[in-house]
Design a protein that fits this description.
The chain is mainly α and 129 residues long. It has one domain. It is 65% helix and 5% strand. It is built from 6 helices and 2 strands. Strands 1-2 form a two-stranded antiparallel sheet. A hairpin with a 2-residue loop joins strand 1 and strand 2. Helix 5 runs antiparallel to helix 6. The chain is elongated.
C-alpha cells in the first residue's frame, strides 16, 4: 500500500465522520423550494433527517471523490514525501483553527479537535504496512 493510499484512507474515514456528525444537523428551510416540495408530498422539512434517508450514500460518495482527487494531487510527488506533506497540511489546519476558533471548510465550522482527529487517523494509517 502506498503512502498516497494511506492518506486517502485516513482522509476518507475522517470526512465520513465529519459528514456523519454534521449532516443530521442540516435543516431544510421551510420557505425554500425544497421545503415547499417536501410539504407537497406530506413530509415535514422541520423534522426531516437527511442522514437517516441518505447517510448510506456518504461513504461511497466520499471515497469516489477523495481517493481520485488525492491521487491526482499527489501523483507527481515521491511517495516517501507524502506523509510529511499531509502532516504539514493538517498542522496548518490545526494552527488556523486554534488561531481563529474554527476553520470553515465547505460551509462547515470545524474545530481544532476535528483536525487533531484527522492527524491521529493519518498517524495510524502511516504505521500500516
Amino acid at each position: 500500500m502506498t503512502n498516497i493510499d494511506k492518506v486517502s484512507l485516513a482522509v476518507s474515514e475522517w470526512a465520513f465522520n465529519v459528514v456523519k456528525t454534521f449532516l443530521p444537523q442540516f435543516k431544510i428551510p421551510i420557505g425554500g423550494k425544497l421545503g415547499g416540495l417536501m410539504q407537497l408530498i406530506g413530509a415535514d422539512p422541520a423534522t426531516y433527517n437527511i442522514w437517516n434517508e441518505l447517510g448510506f450514500l456518504a461513504e461511497p460518495l466520499i471515497q469516489s471523490m477523495v481517493t481520485p482527487t488525492l491521487n491526482r494531487m499527489l501523483s507527481g510527488m515521491p511517495d516517501e514525501q507524502v506523509p510529511e506533506l499531509a502532516m504539514k497540511f493538517v498542522d496548518s489546519f490545526i494552527s488556523r483553527a486554534e488561531e481563529k476558533g474554527a476553520v470553515n471548510l465547505f460551509g462547515i465550522e470545524l474545530s481544532k479537535s476535528t483536525f487533531e482527529r484527522l492527524k491521529e487517523l493519518l498517524e495510524r494509517r502511516m504505521e500500516m504496512e
